[in-house]
Amino acid sequence: MKNTNRVLKELHPLEVKVLLALKGKEKLTSEEIINIARISEAHLRRAAGWLETKKLIKIIKDTKTFVYLTETGKKYYKKGIPEKQIIELIDKKQVVNIKDINLEPTEISKAIGFLKNENIIEIKSGGTLTFKDKTQLEKVNHIQNLIDKAHKGIPLETLAKEDKKIIEERYRERGKGRGMFEITRKQYSTLIITKQGGQVISSLHIKELPLEKISQLTPGLIKDDKWRGKKFREYNIGLKPPRLVIGRKHPYQEFLDKVREKLISMGFCEVEGPLVENEFWNMDALFMPQFHPAREVHGIYFTRHPKYSKKIEPKLLEKVAQTHQNGWRTKSKGWGYKFDKKRAQRLILRSQGTPLSVRTLALHPKPPGKYFAIARCFRPDQIDVTHAADFFQIEGIVIGKNINFRSLLGLLELFGTEIALAKEIRFTPGYFPFTEPSAELHAKHPKLGWVELGGAGMFRPEVTLPLGVKVPVIAWGLGLDRMAMMALNIYDIRDLFSSDLELIRSKTTRVDDPAHSLCAGSSHLMI
Amino acid sequence: MCGVISFNDINMPTITISKRDLESLLKRTLTLEKLENLLPLVKGEIKTIEDDELKIELADTNRPDLLCVEGIAREIVAEPFRVRDFLQTPVKEILVAPELKSIRPYIGGFIALGVSLDEIGLQALIQAQEKLADTYGHKRKNIAIGIYNAKKIEFPVFYKAVHPENISFVPLRGEGRGEPLEFNKSLNLQEIINLHPKGKEYGYILEKASKFPFLEDKKGTPLSFPPIINSKDTGEVKLGDTDIFCEVTGTTIDQVMLAVNIIACNLKDRGGEIYPCKVKYSYTTKFGKEIITPYDFKDSIQIKKQEFENLLGTKLKTREIKENLIKTGYRTKIKNNVIKVISPPYRKDIMHKVDVIEDFAIRRGYNSFKPEKLKEFTVGKTTKLQSVIHKTRSLMVGCGFEEIVSNVLTSSTNLFSKMGLQKGNVVEVENALSESFSVLRNSIIPSLMQVEAVSSKAVYPHKIFEIGEIVIPDPAAELKTKTLINLSALISHPNSNFSELHSFLDSLSYYLGFQYKLKKISHPSFIKGRVGNIMVGAYCNTPLQNIGVLGEIHPQILENWGIKNPVTVFELSISKIFSS
After folding, report:
1. pLDDT tens, position by position, B229-268
2. Which of residues 201-260 of A touch B (CB under 8 A)?
3. Are residues A263 and A403 in the same domain?
4. pLDDT single digits (tens) B326-383
5. Contacts of B62 in chain A (CB under 8 A)
6. What residue numbers bound the domain in which A193 lies?
7. Integer Cα distance of A34 and B540 in angstroms
């Protein structure tokens, strides 16, 4: 009983209406309740949901086939079916000519055909209509009654055999005709009172109904002091509130911003650059030979139009060309092939973030310096779970007189512990055409084991010297998309760029640190 | 583990090896764990394991000698390279005809006697031949390799240029699509190009040649039609064959001779005795008119001990450097702290001192170096543009908009036809893999329309925005194109309209500090009378500048996209607002 009292106190006016409608009955369909309680379908759905959570009712959902009216049927519901309209006309004028009937020709011919077949009227020469047998009029009224009932929907199973036949004849077939009935399967619910629900209903009349309590405190109630002496309906604060759509950063962007913040906090400066590059900055200046497989159509996107950039600064181009051919003054042997200077101007879509680093170096920043770029890149890979149409790379450089291979390892270690929060890391030799020595960073993931996080290397002298940079430079890059996929619990890289709003809404990063989940033990990773 | 694009990964070559075969080359057994720990020596990583068969991915595209199990074994075994096994007196000759100079000028070859090839060994030899020719030889253009049963050949071998229709022989079977094709009848060289699967695949190499390269022996027995296919009779090595003739033809002499050296080393490692051939040219080459192959390039480089120490940041002993380099196959000579390093014959990748220094560091072990924190102080900061983007994003989120991140690569269907526009000036990709990703977007509106097109089931209202790159052609720019940052916002719900989004634009302009006027325009994507350009004037006396558009999308455009709710959008150029 204590429980019933508490439930009673928290009843919402809508719930009371529904319960009162159910009073004295075992169960009712949703349609019946709507009729009795005079509430909207949406209100009933909400109230029924609450009552079910409180275990006062049980809801059984089922589908039933209903007969409804088509647009034509609704017209006839208001005006009467053509047969009825014609009869009423004859009733009024006794003799009616077909020409005087104000209906569509197809409607007229069908209706007259029916009335004649049923012997209600006869057609005389000249198209005049008169009654033949008025006793048969009942048939027309019967159809009209069906129309009136179908306006609200008739469950198909409740129809008599002859009614079914009438509906079949006047049923709208898909895509043609102007039938007046249509048949739809519709979900409907039955609300059944539980034992506890019964107790609550029986107490409803004794207790003061919440309808008399203040539900919504309004400015009027405050202004006129009307709330004094009244009771407030108590809320059930455990109920789930209605869903809201809120403004929000994209989760991938949130992740990128977090990595950006980390890098800035470590003293890195951000740089930016164009999506369409020329081969010079994307590859030649990086000492990638022009015959390198990554420079063929399978490795890089070429533009159709425009095709070539403006001329490259001739002195710089000459130095780079010489370096490729014979090493120039870098003490390298070079690649030993004929460098094609025109090709250096060929426009491509940036395939890596490194051109941003080389462009930065070419501006001769004063050492020491640390730079990074979050770069969207493009490669002609078939789009699949691990390849998106375009993707992000985070790359950068460190310039300093006293840096060396051990500083490079120190930098990678910092990335491992600060960005991926790895507890255990290791280095393996790596290969990038423009760095030597090159190293890869692996971090121990609690579930996945060793995971590659990124790489770094010392820029080759063949890269730095033609640009006029005489101090060592570390170039580094992080495997960003993998970290993002792990952090966002995504297994298909295309989901990072998804157009599906509900999918985006479902993704979130951890509060403390979006990159956190990588190696600090996230709950559900499986790659 | 899925393969994810990482720091400049390019398509790395993968080879298949037998673990037992590797163990027999190493003369010891290895646990998988032990092998995994050794693979960094070759910059390799096991990708898949199937019983005895391992697929290994190799990162260093500049090391063709590692594209085979023998090469991997050589690095792991860490024994000094004994050059005398190579430098025997040549016993046989290959004679090169003058006309080849302009067709496929270079050749090298050798005989290996007493090779023990079991089935796995034979497979390894064939794989090495294919990987070298395909990966290092650029799909046989630069080099192609042929192997033969030496017992069927009478020396000297003649490397000739012949008329495509004058020579016929029965080619080896070819693996086409589906079943291997057997050719039991004799075909002339032109027929081989036209009919044989390998002819169809590699015929392009000889597209411009009027005469074709051809190898035959002293008796006139055909050996092969390089770089296409061997003769079935002489050019098929079978299980049990112990004496092998190998030749490499190509267009670059360094690559040809390096490939000869690599295969010779491989067969030596399988117990063969290598007998070099003397190649006699009628024209001069970088290495003279007569070349004995295999050939010891003796590529050498001198490095000071201090140079090792400076790059690696560690004090080192000369002995330590020497020992580790010898294990890597180098020959060394030391004088006054200067180390002279001579590459083994199977390597030609040393361009600079730094390459040798890395080899030393790898052999010593990367994890033996103590990482050191960067000591010099630098100030970290972002760019002005990024700060503006950041502020704009916060404002849009404050307005209750959800952010979208889309691909920049899209289709002209999305950019133009679905938006009711004529195809405009836009940066197109020449080698697109599909129409869906073939142009760079010049507007963000289509990206947001795409979201609406697939998100009709997502709870309404939809208030979305994206800040990102667009690219437009610009003949005056260095790169003939410009990358700009745009903001686009879209609202869609049953009652959405112009005025609702206009209010947001108004607030945004206030907080971003720019003033604008809307100028009515007509635009095929929008309802007439409900669209305008966003005009700003930075200074007095300067004409107003168009920075974007605001309007209600035309129902026909909504239908093109399959969108069922009214949509209003605006787009404006962040770069343009803040360039002044």
Report:
1. 999 989 889 888 999 999 999 999 999 999 999 999 999 9
2. 243, 245-250, 252-253, 257, 260
3. yes
4. 999 999 999 999 999 999 999 999 999 999 999 999 999 999 999 999 999 999 999 9
5. 431, 433
6. 2-65+188-223
7. 65
